[in-house]
User: Fold this.
Amino acid sequence: MSDEEDVYSADGGDPEFVKRQEAKSSALDEQLKEYIAEWRKQRSKEEEDLKKLKEKQAKRKVMRAEEEKRMAERKKQEEERRQREVEEKKQRDIEEKRRRLEEAEKKRQAMMAALKDQSKNKGPNFTIAKKADPGMSLSSAQLERNKTKEQIEEEKKISLSFRIKPLNLEGYSIHKLQAKATELWETIVKLETEKYDLEERQKRQDYDLKELKERQKQQLRHKALKKGLDPEALTGKYPPKIQVASKYERRVDTRSYDDKKQLFEGGWENTYAEFVEYKWQEKQDRFAKRKKTKLPKWFGERPGKKKGEPESPEEEEVKKDDEDADAGGDDEEEEEGEEEEEEEAEEEEEEEEEEEEEEEEEEEEE
Assistant:
């Protein structure tokens, strides 16, 4: 280490470097002071804004409470007014009814007096009644339907004139106009709120109605399936038709009313007895027309015949039959084949007739 370096280390460093460091630190301090001052200013501004917002919120709460109070008071007044109107209407109805009863009593008294006068005076014992006004016999609903378009428009205008009141703004100052505008705005807000509530309520009710209808359809489908009907039979506008005959019936009933009446009055037993008799006669005829086959006679020597004995007449007949059988065996075989085919055809026809008769019996029993 040199002497200069010893001196530099002993003095504590380069003085220029120290100055530069001090200048940098002083600049940083000034910058930090500026940042802190700016931050404090911004914070004070935010605190003031927050304070203003809180004050405004408190004012709004007070205004809202006052508005709710005014709305409650207004609703109360409207309810009281409505109650007064209902009571007044009831009173008017009672007065009107009393007036009508008094008029009816006066008319009755006048009619009784006229009858007494008529009985005193010897004149014709009849009176010509005046033709009643045709409009008086119509009901209110018919009168409403018979109104023309011009009459309906006129009634609409009159009704709107009662409901929509004109605004008399002449001579109003700015403050009064502002108050009137505020009142109209509040009325619009109230009406829109009620409209929205009613729309939401209607949507909910429509959804509930759809759900209930779907449940009803499901119940009706299960009920129809239990009864053996089509699932959609009970879900229509009208109930299903009552089946008075089987849906598997293949022909239309051609019997007359007298025939059906006889069946219900006990003719079914007679019809069934006739049918049984017919079947019995048919089977008896079939049995009588059957092919009769002779039992074969004994062949060869007569049992118990001894040697040297002459042949008996029966043996001679057997020999003759054998010879005839040998001569005409082929013809008999052909005839037997034809007879067998005819018998098979007859048996098939008889089976078909029996099946048709059984089906007719089942239909008649149904």
User: Anything to note?
Assistant: The first helix runs from residue 3 to 11. Confidence is low (pLDDT under 50) at residues 1-11, 132-136. The chain has eight helices and no strands. The two ends are 139 Å apart (CA to CA).
